[in-house]
Design a protein that fits this description.
- The structure is a single chain.
- This protein is α/β, with parallel strands linked by helices.
- Helices cover 36% and strands 27% of the residues.
- It is built from eleven helices and 21 strands.
- It has helices spanning 16-27, 40-45, 54-62, 67-72, 92-96, 105-118, 240-250, 301-322, 326-353, 361-377, 379-390, and strands at 5-6, 9-12, 32-35, 51-53, 74-76, 78-83, 86-91, 100-102, 123-124, 128-133, 141-145, 151-155, 158-161, 179-194, 204-206, 213-219, 222-229, 263-277, 280-281, 284-286, 292-293.
- The protein has an eight-stranded mixed sheet with strand order 7-6-15-16-17-14-18-21. Strands 9-3-2-13-20-19 form a six-stranded mixed sheet. The chain has a four-stranded mixed sheet with strand order 1-12-11-10, with no helix packed on it.
- The longest helix has 28 residues, at 326-353.
Length: 397
């Protein structure tokens, strides 16, 4: 008969949220077990977000996980809004005193996995049949099958659902206990990773009559590029020659030359906003994409996940070390204030920069150009964009 294993916190999901939560708890002497459905190699190579707010950078440094980030991350002090075939720089540091750092999500994950393994703390990959039980008791349980095919069971004080939008934890909450808010955008992003040095020293957000384009990067030799496409677009309809042709057209500006290179990967991602309230059910606490999704235009997804687990780690520590549950009781409401600020900012950036179809498309286009010109010319409007993009201080909202 299977003997349950007792731990203080069971964490489902080894993405940035789950791994950072485990790391923060470990530093406070709180035991946890992390379970992940995918293999280590897959998790460490999964390319997702690439922009860290200054708040996130500071958190990783404070947690002792910022050494490679500080060595290899690319610090940016602004972005360019490209419209009317010209760049209009939003100077983050000049406007807010803060910056962003380009450092891929997979690199954050690698660093946190290395820290977890160095600590000798439990981290299990390739688990299957994960199910959660007894969520409204003081001893919730997790059952699963490990990579060797052996059944396992964890009994814990707190259960953290950090398993993403398609994970099992949110779906385990009874119908009616959560309210779902969502919005689907009428376009998607076609993204490529190219072995080519970046063509510009900062990110470029390009508004163009053919649709939005984004020039980003992952390192001094790897460029990340995106194109707005239809939500039902097939990747087979986009050979490399067509992709590069569209990127050249949409990113065109006086004096700008786009550097091409071998395409290492490409894919199409739909865009949506999604929030569930509350982010808690009994002793189950949701964090990151399990609780909220933002369109990538505002670069908020990974940063929101980190803000969630920063608050959750402090609240769990307060409960398990001092017997105070107030932090956990306040967790959902406190997180959601930041979530909805990020949702609005991401919606605003998306609405300002993407081409919309329909009978009023030209009306929309003129509104967008008016907003872009105002944002680029008004210090107040530029500061609003900048302070949201670099990340509001943790306790500011």
């Amino acid at each position: 008969m299977m003997t349950p294993v007792r731990t203080q916190v069971a964490i489902i999901g080894a993405g940035p949220a789950g791994l950072l939560l485990a790391h923060l708890l470990h530093r406070e002497g709180i035991e946890s077990v992390v379970l992940e459905a995918r293999g280590r190699e897959y998790v460490e190579k999964r390319v997702r977000a690439g922009v860290l707010e200054q708040t996130s950078v500071e958190l990783l440094r404070e947690a002792g996980a910022g050494e490679r980030l500080d060595r290899e991350g690319l610090v940016h002090e602004g972005i360019s809004l490209r419209f009317d075939a010209a760049d209009h720089r939003i100077a983050f540091t000049e406007l807010t005193g803060r910056s962003i750092t380009v450092y891929g999500q997979q690199e954050v994950v690698k660093d946190l996995i290395a820290a977890r393994l160095a600590a000798g703390a439990p981290l299990e990959f390739e688990v299957t049949d994960v199910a959660v039980h007894d969520l409204t008791t003081d001893a919730p349980r997790v059952t699963y099958v490990d990579a060797a095919g052996r059944p396992g069971e964890l009994v814990c004080d707190v259960l953290a659902g950090c398993d993403g939008f398609h994970g099992v934890t949110r779906d385990a909450i009874p119908a009616g206990a959560l309210t779902v808010y969502e919005h689907a955008y009428p376009f998607a992003w076609l993204g490529i990773l190219a072995e080519a040095p970046p063509s510009h020293e900062e990110l470029i957000y390009a508004y163009h009559e053919r649709g939005f384009a984004l020039h980003s990067m992952r390192s001094p030799r790897i460029t990340r590029l995106y194109l707005q496409v239809a939500p039902d677009e097939s990747i087979e309809a986009w050979p490399e020659t067509r992709i590069w042709g569209e990127l050249h057209a949409r990113l065109a500006a006086d004096g700008f030359s786009l550097t091409e290179g071998p395409v290492l990967e490409k894919g199409i991602t739909g865009m949506r906003s999604f929030v569930v309230e509350p982010m808690r059910y009994g002793r189950l606490f949701l964090a990151g994409d399990a609780a909220h999704i933002v369109p990538p235009t505002g670069a908020k997804g990974m940063n929101l996940a980190m803000a969630d687990v920063r608050r959750l780690a402090a609240a769990v520590t307060d409960l398990l070390r001092h017997g105070r549950g107030g932090g956990l009781d306040a967790y959902s409401d406190a997180c959601l204030r930041r979530v909805w600020r990020a949702e609005h900012f991401s919606w605003w950036m998306t609405s300002m920069l993407h081409r919309f179809e329909g009978t009023d498309a030209e009306f929309q286009r003129r509104l967008q150009l008016s907003q872009l010109r105002y944002t680029a010319s008004s210090p107040a409007a530029a500061t609003s964009l900048a302070e949201n993009y670099v990340g509001l201080p943790f306790d500011a909202i």
